[in-house]
Write a sequence for this structure.
């Protein structure tokens, strides 16, 4: 453990903690744009500079280990001037189109510009221009808004282990890009969208669907047994966006299905009631039908009670005629552990067979 | 009578570019031919050697007859026959082609340690290196010395990193030795990227074995078993000769398992860089070897603790390694005495710009800039006035005439607002515009910024834009202050050395040549008459003879006038190319 003083307050942190970690422990605000607690230290935005007593120049608090006896100052006229100039530089290469930006109100850059009251910019010059080539179904990439914090690159490498994007070119022309500047062709987990501090990476599904007045509902992702915590952003009783909080059991990370796969909720083809087959058994029907209205040519919609009664009758019939082992049960990884437990219990205790399996195996 | 004749043809990059290969071929051809036709009993051997630093006089050829050396300059293949017939066969040197006193002065005033064998031995032949004492130091270090002894000699020699930052090499090695790990690395930084710098290139091309030997000694000193030489792919000759050197060392048992028959093993590989300037920065270089994008990483750990692949790594520059064998052989005191109290030894500089003798110079640290420019460099070309010297490449600054007696060492140059850097020295004369010079260097650094940190990526670009504004006559009140603020901001907040020093050319010229900036902004004039948007060409009527030379060369038909009467330049049409100025024999055209 090491003990240091930040802005006159003593704090004890574990060895190999950074000054930024220590300051956050004390709830002392230090502005950052490229830092993410789950990703490797980067030191790119240069906003988290602090002064250390005895050090000739400011250091980046996110990439300096806290040491015993260190005396750190997180704010001074000099530091604030440096931060302000850095922000001005960032904004001088930014479209500043917050009026129409998807992330307005939820943008770290905008927030800092607000706190530092930057309205006029002393640095006006060439800006990057980016021709959008993204035909992928999930992620909008507006590289003109990118501040090159590198969080998307790191999350893709370090958390997802995919490495679909990296830096390309040098100087002002530096851009985050898929290989050979082609369209994004990854597993579309959207982790990069989640960590992007600005409007550079946004979900296509929630583009132009509103920025304010969302009802947030905490729930569990229905897709698999992992049980990731998700937050549904609801507006006018429609799910507009799915996100996940950093302090959840899944650390805020989701997969492509959990993050982007929610359009089924209001889809007209979604089956909301049980179906019982109406086409006689010996008659073939086209199993390639996927549209609900076509399916209904072969099935009829019933209430749950009717469906369950139908199943009970049929199971009994089969068991009586052919014995319990003529029945097999197959359940899904999308169910929770508890549901799967009940299912195998039902098969073994009620039906009386061990013929039970699961796509992830019992 | 048997004469011992050796012919040495400069085959550094400068030599090869000037036709060294053809000259060498011609000599070989002549030797074969004379062996048949002329019955002369000579042991004649033509060999290639590396750069000898005086590239402006290439191709340089040494003819050594019984240990008497004669040097020829500017040799072309068609001149070989005459030299061969008159000098080698008849024993009379061809006087009109001799390199002469200029060549001797250039070399005699230098102190050659690193370059002592460059231009003298065949870089592609290990025996040529061994003949001048090569690998004796490595053998001694491996067989007779402990790691601690080597470290202590290097520490006592006061050798400091020749890559530019000047970190004491001994201390670095000591730390490398102290940290325990199953795998440790030694890396040689040969990613020389400063425009106009070719010191490391000449060493790698002219004396590659000295670098390899230095690395072997470092490996023993730090107990590392693996090494990389990081060379930029733009140096194909250096890559080729280093690879030949490494292969020869493996054959001789100087590299690989149980080197020199000891129980110490060291494997060495070349890694070719793809041409990013920033990869000269240690952490970016290591990321590059790891196969990642060459971007500097924050220094949470020192390289000696966690470097390449998170393993302890000692990284030194080419020139630093090349010094090591000499220190081991001649002792720490010898080396220490060559330099100043704070930094021992010599430093190689590439002297270029408006100086008479351009090329590589090696001088003891502590020598003054004046001695380098006037005694070795022969003064300013064309008898013009000296204005400034730019040291340290794009990360360095400009030092004005009043500071010419500044001693060349890490601290003094930093105090003068520049840096030692890797050793670039560009001499600027009175016809140089300092604003334009600063712009030139900033153009380079902003394009080479890796893009990681904000101040370097955007800040240098904004500085460049302000400079472009000033040099094109659109400078505004407050631009100088903005440049200064931004420059200091970038220096204070950048992540790596590239950014921290990128503003040096601007800040140092603002310090010493502020009036030039003011002239550009307020009077819209370029005092050195360089910035095209700020100069005008006018014909002085009294001097114009109406010969029409200017009219004929003008590419934009901007000059009007009839024969034998004064001409005039139409300012609307003039594109300020300066062709008329160069063409006028009567100095009738005024450039202001």
């Amino acid at each position: 453990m090491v003990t240091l003083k930040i802005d006159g307050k003593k704090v004890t942190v574990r060895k190999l903690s950074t000054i930024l970690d220590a300051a956050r422990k004390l709830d002392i605000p230090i502005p950052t744009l490229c830092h993410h607690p789950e990703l490797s230290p980067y030191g790119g935005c240069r906003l988290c500079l602090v002064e250390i007593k005895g050090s000739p120049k400011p250091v980046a608090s996110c990439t300096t280990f806290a040491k015993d006896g260190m005396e750190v100052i997180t704010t001074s006229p000099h530091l604030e001037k440096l931060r302000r100039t850095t922000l001005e530089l960032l904004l001088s290469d930014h479209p500043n189109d917050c009026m129409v930006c998807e992330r307005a109100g939820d943008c770290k850059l905008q927030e800092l510009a607000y706190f530092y009251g930057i309205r006029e910019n002393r640095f006006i010059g060439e800006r990057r221009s980016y021709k959008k080539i993204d035909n992928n179904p999930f992620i909008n990439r507006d590289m003109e808004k990118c501040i090159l914090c590198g969080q998307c690159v790191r999350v893709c490498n370090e958390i997802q282990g995919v490495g679909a994007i990296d830096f390309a070119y040098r100087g002002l022309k530096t851009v985050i890009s898929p290989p050979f500047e082609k369209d994004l062709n990854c597993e579309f987990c959207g982790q990069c969208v989640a960590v992007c501090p600005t409007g550079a990476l946004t979900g296509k599904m929630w583009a132009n669907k509103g920025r304010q007045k969302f009802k947030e509902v905490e729930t569990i992702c229905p897709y698999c047994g992992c049980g990731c915590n998700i937050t549904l952003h609801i507006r006018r009783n429609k799910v507009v966006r799915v996100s996940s909080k950093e302090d959840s059991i899944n650390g805020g990370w989701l997969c492509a299905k959990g993050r982007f796969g929610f359009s089924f909720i209001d889809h007209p083809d979604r089956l909301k009631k049980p179906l019982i087959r109406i086409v006689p058994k010996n008659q073939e029907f086209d199993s390639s039908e996927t549209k609900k209205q076509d399916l209904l040519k072969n099935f009829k919609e019933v209430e749950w009670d009717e469906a369950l009664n139908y199943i009970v009758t049929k199971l009994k019939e089969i068991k009586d005629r052919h014995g319990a082992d003529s029945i097999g049960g197959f359940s899904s990884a999308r169910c929770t552990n508890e549901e799967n437990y009940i299912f195998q219990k039902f098969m073994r205790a009620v039906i009386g067979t061990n013929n039970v399996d699961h796509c992830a195996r019992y | 009578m048997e004469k011992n004749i050796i012919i040495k043809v400069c085959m550094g990059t400068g030599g090869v570019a000037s036709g060294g290969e053809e000259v060498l071929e011609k000599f070989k051809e002549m030797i074969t031919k004379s062996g048949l036709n002329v019955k002369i009993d000579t042991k004649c051997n033509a060999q290639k050697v590396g750069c000898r630093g005086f590239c402006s006089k290439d191709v340089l050829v040494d003819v050594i007859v019984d240990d008497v050396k004669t040097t020829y300059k500017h040799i072309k293949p068609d001149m070989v026959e005459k030299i061969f017939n008159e000098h080698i066969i008849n024993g009379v040197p061809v006087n009109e082609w001799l390199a002469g006193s200029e060549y001797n002065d250039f070399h005699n005033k230098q102190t050659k340690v690193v370059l002592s064998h460059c231009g003298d031995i065949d870089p592609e032949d290990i025996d040529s290196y061994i003949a001048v004492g090569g690998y004796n130091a490595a053998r001694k270090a491996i067989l007779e010395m402990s790691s601690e002894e080597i470290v202590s000699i290097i520490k006592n020699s006061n050798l400091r990193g020749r890559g530019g930052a000047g970190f004491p090499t001994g201390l670095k090695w000591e730390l490398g030795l102290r940290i325990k790990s199953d795998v440790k690395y030694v890396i040689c930084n040969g990613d020389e990227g400063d425009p106009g710098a070719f010191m490391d290139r000449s060493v790698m091309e002219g004396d590659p074995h000295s670098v390899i030997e230095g690395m072997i000694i470092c490996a023993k000193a730090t107990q590392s078993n693996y090494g990389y030489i990081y060379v930029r792919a733009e140096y194909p000759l250096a890559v080729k000769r280093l690879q030949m050197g490494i292969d020869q060392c493996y054959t001789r048992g100087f590299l690989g398992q149980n080197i020199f028959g000891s129980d110490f093993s060291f494997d060495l590989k070349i890694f070719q860089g793809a041409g990013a300037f920033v990869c000269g920065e240690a952490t970016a270089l290591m990321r590059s070897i790891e196969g990642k994008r060459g971007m500097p990483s924050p220094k949470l750990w020192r390289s000696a603790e966690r470097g390449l692949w998170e393993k302890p790594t000692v990284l030194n520059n080419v020139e630093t390694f090349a010094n090591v064998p000499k220190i081991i052989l001649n002792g720490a005191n010898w080396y220490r005495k060559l330099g100043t109290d704070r930094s021992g030894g010599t430093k190689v500089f590439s002297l270029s710009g408006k100086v008479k003798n351009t090329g590589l110079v090696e001088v003891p640290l502590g020598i003054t800039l004046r001695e380098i420019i006037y005694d070795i460099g022969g003064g300013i070309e064309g008898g013009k006035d000296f204005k400034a010297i730019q040291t340290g490449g794009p990360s360095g600054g400009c030092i004005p005439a009043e500071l010419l007696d500044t001693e060349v060492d890490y601290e003094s140059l930093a105090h003068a607002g520049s840096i030692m850097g890797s050793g670039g020295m560009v001499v600027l004369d009175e016809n140089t515009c300092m604003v334009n010079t600063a712009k030139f260097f900033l153009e380079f650094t902003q394009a080479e910024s890796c893009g990681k940190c904000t101040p370097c990526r955007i800040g240098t670009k904004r500085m460049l834009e302000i400079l472009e504004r000033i040099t094109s006559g659109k400078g505004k009140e407050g631009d100088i202050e903005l440049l200064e603020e931004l420059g200091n901001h970038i220096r204070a907040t950048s992540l790596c050395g590239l950014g921290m020093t990128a503003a040096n050319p601007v800040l140092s010229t603002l310090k010493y040549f502020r009036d030039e900036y003011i002239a550009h902004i307020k009077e819209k004039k370029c005092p050195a008459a360089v910035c095209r948007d700020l100069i005008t060409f006018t014909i002085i009527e009294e001097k114009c003879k109406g010969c029409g030379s200017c009219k004929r060369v003008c590419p934009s038909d901007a000059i009007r006038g009839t024969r034998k009467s004064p001409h005039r330049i139409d300012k609307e049409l003039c594109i300020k190319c300066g062709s008329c100025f160069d063409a006028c024999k009567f100095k009738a055209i005024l450039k202001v």
Summary: Chain A touches chain B through 37 residues (CB under 8 Å). The first helix of chain A runs from residue 19 to 25. The longest strand of chain A covers residues 229-235.
